[in-house]
Amino acid sequence: MILMAFSFTGNVVLGEHFTSLVTPLQFFCYFFTDEIIQYIAHQTALYSVQQFPNNPLVITKADMERFIGIAMSMSLVKLASSRRYWSIHQFTFELV
């Protein structure tokens, strides 16, 4: 393995709009705005109509937010199989 040293030559000054973000949710909402999530939901619904014209899914912005939340949670909390995420047996974890 060859390791190469690189130095960042870009602008390291962050604007006030970015430095005022404190929580993980604020960072997420900075990049995933309501308009972007609504657009993703709309495109998903459009795809559903194209694939299943007789029985398309109705996808709302709230549905898409839930899906993104579940996908992010599943990427952070690793279980032995995907079926375990939907088990009726509750599991708990503590964030450190």
Order of helices and strands: HHHH
Helix % is 40-55%
- What is the C-alpha radius of gyration, as a whole number of Å? 20 Å
| Major sheet | none
Unreliable residue stretches? none
Overall SS class:
mainly alpha
Number of domains: 1
Q: Please provide the count of β strands.
A: 0
Mean pLDDT, nearest integer?
86
N-C termini distance? 33 Å
Helix count, per DSSP?
4
Shape: extended
Strand content: under 5%
Describe this structure in words.
It is a single chain. The protein is mainly alpha-helical. The protein has one domain. 48% of the residues lie in helices and 0% in strands. It is built from four helices and no strands. Helix 3 crosses helix 4. It is extended.
Task: Describe the secondary structure blueprint for this structure.
Elements: H1 16-19, H2 24-31, H3 34-51, H4 61-76
Helix pairs in contact: 3-4
Give a brief rundown of this model.
This protein is mostly helical and 96 residues long.
Main features:
single chain; 96 residues; mainly alpha; extended
